[in-house]
Amino acid sequence: MRILYPGSFDPLTLGHLDLIERASILFGEVVVAVLSNPQKAPTFNLEERIHHISNSTSHLKKVEVISFDGLTVTCAREQKVDLILRGLRALSDFEYELQIAHTNRTLSPEFETIFLASSAHQSFLSSSVVKEVARFGGEVRHMVPEAVAKDLLRLFNSALT
């Protein structure tokens, strides 16, 4: 079975990585689809985000990292996946994610969305929280893969000088 895990991954967190690892066990092939959204100014460019994910998932055999723009269901169709994966950290995520799942279903009824709850010790993690902590010089090594932590440190230290 092939599953699509779409997102901006700006930056990749250990919560994202946990879902990718668990999905690879549960579903087999995982396509991590990094959204290229020209309307947003990401902290890391598309190539850097793909690089972070590829390096952080190199120990997994059936993970592919791609970029996409436009609709998730279009990407899902192009990638010939069976399911779409979304992560849930807290109850507050559920309303938004359910709305997206229903919208995707109305656009392409052939795609089901599967929700995986984050691990309890990572339920506080979000990319925006990680960036905020890093921006003010806080420790993020327990929130993101090592290479991402180094790049955040480099990025925000150079912004301070």
What would you say this structure looks like, in words?
This protein is of the alpha/beta class and 161 residues long. The protein has one domain (2-120): 3-Layer(aba) Sandwich (Rossmann fold). It is 46% helix and 19% strand. It contains six helices and five strands. It has a five-stranded parallel β-sheet with strand order 3-2-1-4-5, sandwiched between helices. It is globular and about 45 Å long.
Summarize the structure.
The chain contains 6 helices and 5 strands.
User: Based on the structure given, which CATH architecture is correct?
Assistant: 3-Layer(aba) Sandwich
- What's the alpha carbon Rg, rounded to whole Å? 16 Å
Helix and strand succession? EHEHEHEHEHH
Question: What is the overall pLDDT average?
Answer: 94
Determine the number of helices (DSSP H or I, runs of at least 4 residues). Answer: 6
Instruction: Describe the global form.
Output: globular
Separation, N- and C-terminal Cα atoms: 48 Å
| Assembly of the depicted chains | single chain
For the largest beta-sheet, the strand count, sense and barrel status come to: 5 strands, parallel
User: Which residues form runs of ≥5 with pLDDT under 50?
Assistant: none
Number of strands: 5
Query: Beta fraction of the residues?
Result: 15-25%
CATH H-level superfamily:
HUPs
The CATH class turns out to be: Alpha Beta
CATH topology: Rossmann fold
